Amino acid sequence: QSALTQPASVSGSPGQSITISCTGTSSDVGGYNYVSWYQQHPGKAPKLMIYDVTNRPSGVSDRFSASKSGKTASLTISGLQAEDEAIYYCSSYTSSSAPGVFGGGTTLTVL
Amino acid sequence: EVQLVETGGGLIQPGGSLRLSCAASGFTVSSYYMSWVRQAPGKGLEWVSVTYSSGNTYYADSVKGRFTISRDNSKNTLYLQMISLRAEDTAVYYCARSPPYSYYFDYWGQGTLVTVSS
């Protein structure tokens, strides 16, 4: 069982928007602004999409945005495209154990 | 250009030992937080170990006492020494970089597969 809780799957049609949630505790998501999001295509290494809750690395599309409220962080993808189909993981610093925790991953299907 | 290249994976019997290497280029490993993250077949990501630029190291409870993370600054390489390997250690092992004082991974290697089986 993962330390952070994500829905197993979400889906959307091209052009639509979807949101993936990531729920933790006050020892991780709720206590620190160190939430990050990763995209992983089959057989590939994860790719950083969001860091420190809301920041987008250079080169990542502005269709990706994120936020946090209390113990739940969220990743929103707008204007869905076929290439967005992947597994998305959230991660957070945690004070309860080292070195950190991931969510179980959410499979995004673009219909 | 930042690159991380892992080597050292393979098939190993339960109870055996293995050392993974992660050769870095385009930056200096001693100046960054460096981690090992693993992914069991068909499963999610698990943060295994981290070494901070201060030299402090941390481990997931699942590997504590069996895995040791280290760096060779002269070779700009990160290592993961694994002993007493178990079937549940079977995974792709990635090395990943974090900027100092941050807790996200901005660069990842391609991964190396470790299979623990008799």
Rounded Rg of chain A: 13 Å
Shape summary of chain B: globular
Evaluate the radius of gyration of chain B.
13 Å
Distance between the termini of chain A: 28 Å
The proportion of residues forming helix of chain B, as a percent range, comes to under 10%
Please, what is the oligomeric state? heterodimer
Q: What is the tally of beta strands of chain B?
A: 11
Ranges of chain B where pLDDT stays below 50 over 5 or more residues in a row are none
Average pLDDT figure of chain B: 96
Helix-strand category of chain B: mainly beta
Shape of chain A: globular
Low-confidence stretches of chain A: none
What is the percentage of strand-forming residues of chain B? over 45%
End-to-end Cα distance of chain B, whole Å, is 40 Å
The SSE order of chain A reads EEEEEEEEE
Most extensive interface between two protein chains, with residue counts: A-B, 25 and 22 residues
Largest sheet of chain A: 6 strands, mixed
Brief rundown of the structure:
Chain A is an all-beta fold and 111 residues long. Chain A contains no helices and nine strands.
Keywords:
heterodimer; A: 111 residues; mainly beta; six-stranded mixed beta sheet; three-stranded antiparallel beta sheet; 9 strands; 0% helix; 41% strand; B: 118 residues; seven-stranded mixed beta sheet; four-stranded antiparallel beta sheet; globular
What does this molecule look like?
The complex is a heterodimer of chains A (111) and B (118). Chain A is an all-beta fold and 111 residues long. Chain A contains no helices and 9 strands. Chain A has strands at residues 9-12, 18-23, 35-40, 47-50, 64-69, 72-77, 86-92, 101-102, 106-110. In chain A, the strands form 2 sheets. In chain A, strands 1, 3, 4, 7, 8 and 9 form a 6-stranded mixed β-sheet that branches. Chain A has a 3-stranded antiparallel β-sheet with strand order 2-6-5, with no helix packed on it. In chain A, a hairpin with a 2-residue loop joins strand 5 (64-69) and strand 6 (72-77). In chain A, 36% of the residues are buried. The model of chain A has no long low-confidence stretch (mean pLDDT 95). Chain B has 118 residues and is an all-beta fold. Chain B is 0% helix and 51% strand. In chain B, strands 2, 4, 5, 6, 9, 10 and 11 form a 7-stranded mixed β-sheet that branches. In chain B, strands 1-3-8-7 form a 4-stranded antiparallel β-sheet, with no helix packed on it. The termini of chain B are far apart. The mean pLDDT of chain B is 96. Chains A and B meet through strand 7 and strand 8 of A and strand 5 of B.
